[in-house]
Design brief:
308 residues, alpha/beta, N-(1-d-carboxylethyl)-l-norvaline Dehydrogenase, domain 2, ten-stranded mixed beta sheet, 10 strands, globular
């Protein structure tokens, strides 16, 4: 398959690199230091599932130089969705699929305006990865999983072709074609909203958050509100899904944080407006109270633009 990765950070670099490793035609779109690093040193991945070095990769800051592809991985930060969505237009041909691996639940609505909803497939990924100072991908743990699917659950030719490409890369990550990708996206959203909110708000990892009765209760409240909003929008979430996610949080390494926590520590922009902020907005539209998420959003909003 011909694949373009729009936003070649840790997530795009990892999954794009693994697909390139098995012979897929992968081009990366990057900018700034990451563009320079990939041009100079290629792509490096350090991973318990096997280290990888691609000494030469096709990388550019101009999507038009790549041309139409079979599939676009869209992995930019949420605040860049609208701008980057306009930039991928040259990558989109008549049958191109665009898969956003972003954490929010609103990105596809933005992308639909840019490229047309017929080109969108839903997707989520589960991976703990980051970029080091040299631009290499550091993958922690065995978890590297991709779930994707067509809205409505149809098993199309393009979805099947991508599943077959992922199967060839199964040493590097696991993949699943879902028949209810909207529910899968919301399931991840519920947990990411909770993890991001409480680790960033408290400046602590999940271990202390889940151990203290007050922060544990707030974590559950934040996730319950997200579930209530999703159900009000017609998403098939279990009524006790937040409680299930809290039990899952108890199984995580105590030192686990979130990408939003890391962004706050580094003085970067925060995705809080698309996480707890989205729960508040969507809850208001659906008539669902969201006081816990409103408190998180208000507390972190002044940091959302990053350090001065």
């Amino acid at each position: 398959m011909k694949i373009a990765v729009m936003g070649s950070g840790a997530v795009g670099g990892y999954f794009g690199g693994r697909l390139a490793q098995v012979g897929e035609d992968v081009a990366f779109v990057a900018r700034g230091r990451q563009l320079a690093a990939m041009r100079e040193r290629g792509l490096r991945i350090a991973s318990p599932r096997g280290d990888l070095h691609l000494p030469s990769v096709r990388v550019t800051d101009d999507p038009a130089s790549i041309g139409p592809v079979d599939l676009v991985f869209f992995t930019v930060k949420l605040w860049s969705t609208e701008e980057a969505g306009r930039q991928i237009a040259p990558l989109v041909g008549p049958d191109t699929a665009v898969i956003s691996l972003q954490n929010g639940v609103e990105a596809n609505d933005v992308l639909a305006r840019a490229v047309g909803r017929e080109h969108l497939m839903g997707g989520v990924c589960y991976i703990a990865a980051s970029l080091d100072e040299s631009g290499s991908v550091e993958h922690r743990g065995q978890m590297a999983r991709l779930v994707f699917g067509e809205p409505g659950g149809a098993r199309t030719r393009r979805a099947q072709a991508f599943l077959e490409a992922c199967a060839r890369a199964r040493a590097g990550f696991d993949a699943e074609l879902s028949s209810d990708i909207d529910r899968v996206i919301w399931e991840k959203f519920v947990f990411i909203v909770g993890l991001s909110a409480l680790t960033t708000l408290t400046r602590r990892s999940i271990g202390p958050v889940r151990s203290d009765p007050d922060t544990r209760a707030m974590l559950l409240d934040v996730m319950r509100e997200a579930v209530a909003v999703g159900r009000a929008k017609g998403v098939d979430l279990s009524p006790d899904f937040a409680d299930q996610r809290l039990a899952f949080a108890d199984t995580l390494p105590a030192g686990m944080t979130s990408s939003m926590y890391n962004d706050l520590e580094r003085g970067n922009r925060l995705e809080v407006g698309w996480l707890s902020g989205a729960v508040v907005r969507l809850g208001r539209d659906a008539g669902v109270p969201t006081p816990a998420n409103r408190a998180v959003y208000a507390a972190l909003k002044l940091h959302a633009g990053g350090a001065a």
